[in-house]
Design brief:
Elements (H helix, E strand, L loop, with lengths): L2 H4 L17 H15 L2 E3 L1 E3 L2 E3 L3 E7 L2 E11 L2 H20 L2 H16 L3 H12 L3 H28 L8 E9 L3 E5 L5 H13 L4 E4 L5 H13 L7 E3 L4 H8 L5 E7 L2 H13 L9 E5 L4 E5 L5 H13 L9 E7 H15 L20 H16 L3 E5 L3 E2 L5 E2 L2 E5 L5 H4 L6 E7 L4 H11 L2 E2 L1 E5 L3 H10 L6 E4 L16 E2 L10 H5 L2 E9 L13
Helix pairs in contact: 2-5, 3-9, 4-6, 5-6, 5-8, 6-7, 11-12
Length: 541
């Protein structure tokens, strides 16, 4: 790697736009939103760089207005899956032989396209299709995706530069080869940046990819492919398909050239896919890499020394930004009795000012949950809490599906630390609070660790350094991302590598070099300059 290349500052976090009321930024974004809202979009699959259509047209609607027709996408068949696999494999040799700096240039250009001419359009698509407000769209579709692209180039150069020691007369080197075969990316609805990162980070390391985005994220997925195409990504390197999830997994994971899975989604689906891979292990040419980030039941642990306003703000932001539809969202909180009334009062004053509605109005903090299934699930938890002797809804609780899938920010206070909403992943704007006796601090730490099978994110609020250290140690395995005096959401690429263990995934840390290392296969090379001419070592005389 040349010195000039290594000194280019790729890894700089993209500044977040403020979108202050009346600013040119917000006017431009809302203008793009309104324009896209009127468009009747037609979204084909992309296989071998070509638009692929089918007879099966699936209508697209918006979570904030489920009666409004945005257009349609073409749903594919298993033949399209096979075509995508064959296309990827056909593109592999030429892509593998392209210099790494040429690959890097494509993704750096893509980052600049997102930062510039595509920013409003990608953000607006995320707002319309995934119901994110202006800030949530900005930190996701723009900033995080840009950061993934730029930092991953930096991480790639660091990986390639890591070389072994060479002794006298010998040159040792490591070659970081792409995986042998094709990779499969399965991405979720909730983060446009994740949808962009999972296939592109594998492709950046020289792999070819079959990408299946969520059918609830097709609007922004199309724009991601438009960006990659304009950036110069060769045909066949990333192939985007819209097909049945189970059938696609069956076909892809039984292929002998399957080499790697990059997944973000539900725990159940990931476990089923892992089981399929295990059952098919004898068919593969190589042992596949399996990287997955699934879900969480993320906690906020509050010590009696904590700052009340900081706790209340952390809970409101952590639980209700993007309607709680972040894998990292604060979903369960443990608050000492001595602080609870004060925390509750500050939360009440903040929640009273929160507006709910369409992202088209930038003053709305809360938007719609993603679809009817999510709405009904949230409504079910709320209705059961209303009837339960162990739970009390202290804030929110209203649901309205007349136009969009709207669920109010809801706080459930429970006397049972194992009540269903404390233990189960909900993926909606519902926060469960268990109030503990101050003297039960240590016992409550144990409760936090044992309540959930997940281990994604969690936080501790305390002004007592001994208490922070105690929680830090007691909750060692309870969260892959641990926050001190902050909400458990908002990991930034290059700053807080993201991922969890236990039922939350393989903890391969997106936004770091660790993740990219999963998509290479290392070859160690030793070259001896003057070869020995006799088998005898000195000890033989």
């Amino acid at each position: 790697m040349s010195k000039a290349i290594s000194q280019v500052p790729f890894a700089v976090n993209e500044p977040v736009r403020s979108y202050e009321p009346g600013s040119a930024e917000v006017k431009s974004l809302i203008s793009a939103y309104k324009q896209m809202w009127k468009e009747q979009v037609e979204i084909p699959m992309i296989i071998d760089g070509k638009e692929v259509k089918s007879e099966d047209k699936i209508a697209i609607s918006s979570p904030q207005d489920h009666q409004h027709n945005l257009g349609f996408y073409y749903r594919g068949t298993m033949q399209h899956v096979e075509d995508a696999i064959n296309t990827a494999l056909a593109a592999k040799e030429k892509w593998n032989n392209l210099g790494w700096e040429q690959r890097a240039a494509i993704f750096l250009k893509a980052a600049d396209l997102v930062a510039g001419p595509y920013r409003d359009r990608l953000n607006a698509a995320t707002m319309i299709g995934q119901s994110k407000n202006v800030h949530q769209a900005e930190i996701d579709a723009a900033c995080e995706f840009i950061d993934f692209l730029r930092y991953n180039v930096e991480f790639m150069t660091e990986i390639y530069s890591e070389q072994p020691v060479s002794d006298t007369g010998v040159w040792n080197r490591s070659e970081y080869r792409p995986l042998e075969g094709f990779c499969f990316a399965v991405t979720p609805f909730n983060f446009t940046a994740i949808a962009g990162n999972l296939p592109t980070c594998m492709a950046m390391m020289g792999n070819v990819v079959v990408w299946k985005p969520s059918d609830k994220q097709v609007l922004s997925a199309k724009i991601i492919m438009d960006i990659l195409t304009e950036a110069g990504l060769p045909a066949g390197v990333i192939n985007m398909i819209f097909t049945d999830g189970k059938e696609t997994a069956d076909k892809v994971l039984s292929h002998p050239d399957f080499a790697g899975l990059h997944f973000t989604g539900s725990t159940t689906v990931f476990q089923d896919m892992w089981k399929k891979i295990g059952n098919n292990i004898h068919q593969y040419k190589t042992y596949p890499r399996i990287v997955g980030e699934t879900g969480g039941k993320d906690f906020v642990m509050v010590h009696p020394s904590a700052n009340v306003e900081a706790v209340a703000t952390g809970l409101v932001r952590g639980a209700f930004e993007y309607q709680g539809q972040k894998c990292s969202a604060a979903s369960r909180a443990y608050v000492p009795k001595s602080l609870w009334n004060d925390v509750k009062a500050v939360m009440e004053s903040q929640l009273k000012t929160i507006k709910m509605g369409s992202p088209e109005d930038p003053s709305n903090f809360i938007n719609a949950v993603i679809d009817k299934n999510s709405f009904e699930k949230c409504k079910g938890y709320i209705e059961r809490a209303e009837k339960s002797a162990e739970a009390n809804i202290i804030f929110g609780g209203k649901c309205d599906d007349s136009k969009g899938w709207f669920v109010e920010p809801t706080v459930i206070e429970t006397t049972n630390p194992k009540y269903e909403s404390v233990c189960e992943e909900i993926f909606g704007p519902i926060l469960s609070v268990y109030v503990y006796e101050d003297q039960d601090w240590k016992e409550t730490l144990k409760l936090v660790d044992e309540t959930s099978p997940y281990s994604l994110t969690g936080s501790i609020f305390s002004q007592d350094r001994y208490a922070i250290d105690e929680a830090y140690k007691a909750l060692e395995n309870a969260a892959g991302n641990f926050y001190i005096n902050d909400k458990p959401t908002g990991a930034v690429v290059g700053q807080q590598p993201f991922g969890g263990a236990r039922a939350s995934g393989t903890n391969d840390k997106a936004g770091s070099k660790m993740n990219l290392l999963r998509w290479v296969s290392v070859r160690s090379i030793k070259e001896t300059f003057v070869s020995p001419k006799d088998y005898k070592y000195p000890y033989l005389g």
